[in-house]
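Thread amino acids onto this structure.
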């Protein structure tokens, strides 16, 4: 890629991004009916290209039951993974210019959060979700700028379950059991014999690692692995996913009750000026937002539900107190908001995918998802000052 072409493209992106700065964008994605689900009975009446979505109350057919929403974008059920990624590419690439970006998927269990963020099980490249595509895109663009700006790209993957942070790329066997010794060997060789050490060293040399952990940019104690090729992207993502799903079978679909966060760290050195920039991208697949009836759950399920409620409502609290320019932003109230602090507020850019299950059975959950999304989409984060 020609450097001048890249600069021109950057300028264009920069102008687009000026618009984004400080705002939360909300993109709503409606998942299709799945085969074998019986006759589709949809609540989604209309999906407009201009960001309009109309849903209908299944118990009140006719005009009275219609409710209209407007978001920055609305995807119909047939939107492809590639289309979705094309729309968020400028946001993802701004990380290479030193911005902090956070992309969430919010919605009830089964609404397509993991599909959007990761893709379906065993996804081919065409079905890759945002995580694979973003990581691969950042890696490829960083390669194309080599010589002008030299980048290091590193990845961390963690899961927050019951307010505990688990490292999905850890090779600590007390925390995670690797199903295949291949994974262990891969991580082992990557971290000890090749460039993990160099990457960490580079960050140290540049004084970035200590700054990032102090500011909460890097997840403390979670291993960071370098990305040197597309196959590293695939292997790291696969290991993280495998670890997440191993936990899930053992603990009854735990993945829908935990948040998973992929963090891509980018550090670039401008070879002409010697200046260094640092950006990070948080890609978050949130726990299911459905309300659990407390009278019906006990023990572990109740504890999980309480933790999920607490962290999702803390996320809302942070967003809304940023919006109201409050002098105290309650980042400390949950592990989730603590870890994402650098990407919420200030100059950071935030995008929320609101996921909907179109089935009439999910109407009330869909309405509460949409109402949350509606509140969030009006939020401007830029002007607020963060407090510790
Ligand atoms: P969640 O992460 O919100 O619990 P999933 O991503 O697991 O939901 O989606 C539930 C099911 O719907 C999965 O089988 C998934 O493959 C399928 N699905 C979700 N979104 C889409 C889509 N846009 N196109 C095709 N299948 C989808």
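Threaded sequence (388 positions):
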């Amino acid at each position: 890629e020609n450097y001048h072409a890249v600069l021109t493209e950057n300028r264009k992106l920069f102008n687009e991004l000026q618009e984004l700065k400080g705002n939360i964008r909300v993109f709503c994605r409606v998942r299709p009916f799945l085969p074998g689900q019986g006759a589709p009975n949809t609540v989604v009446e209309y999906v407009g290209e201009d960001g309009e979505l109309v849903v209908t109350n299944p118990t009140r057919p006719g005009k009275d039951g219609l409710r209209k929403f407007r978001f920055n974008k609305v995807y119909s059920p047939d939107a492809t993974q590639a289309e979705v990624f094309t729309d968020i590419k400028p946001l993802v690439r701004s990380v290479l210019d030193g911005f902090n970006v956070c992309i969430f998927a919010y919605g009830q269990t089964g609404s397509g959060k993991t599909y959007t963020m990761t893709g379906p099980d065993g996804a081919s490249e065409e079905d890759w979700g945002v995580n694979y595509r973003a990581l691969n895109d950042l890696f490829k663009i960083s390669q194309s700028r080599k010589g002008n700006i030299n980048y290091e790209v590193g990845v961390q993957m963690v899961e927050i379950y019951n307010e505990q942070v688990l490292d999905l790329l850890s090779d600590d066997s007390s925390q995670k059991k690797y199903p295949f010794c291949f994974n262990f060997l891969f991580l082992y060789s990557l971290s000890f014999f090749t460039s993990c050490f160099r990457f960490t060293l580079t960050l140290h040399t540049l004084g970035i690692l200590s700054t990032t952990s102090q500011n909460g940019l890097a997840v403390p104690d979670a291993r960071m692995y370098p990305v040197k090729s597309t196959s590293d992207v695939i292997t790291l993502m696969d290991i993280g996913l495998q670890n997440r799903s191993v936990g899930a079978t053992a603990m009854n679909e735990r993945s829908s009750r935990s948040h998973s966060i992929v963090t891509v760290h980018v550090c670039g050195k401008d070879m002409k000026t010697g200046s260094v920039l640092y950006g990070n991208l948080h890609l978050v697949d949130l726990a299911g937002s459905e309300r659990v009836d407390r009278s019906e759950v006990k023990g572990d399920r109740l504890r999980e539900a309480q933790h999920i409620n607490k962290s999702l409502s803390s996320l809302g609290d942070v967003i809304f107190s940023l919006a109201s320019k409050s002098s105290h932003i309650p980042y400390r109230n949950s592990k989730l908001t603590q870890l994402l602090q650098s990407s919420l507020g200030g100059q950071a850019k935030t995008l929320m995918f609101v996921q909907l299950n179109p089935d009439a059975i999910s109407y009330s959950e869909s309405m509460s998802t949409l109402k949350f999304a509606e509140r969030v989409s009006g939020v401007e984060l830029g002007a607020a000052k963060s407090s510790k």
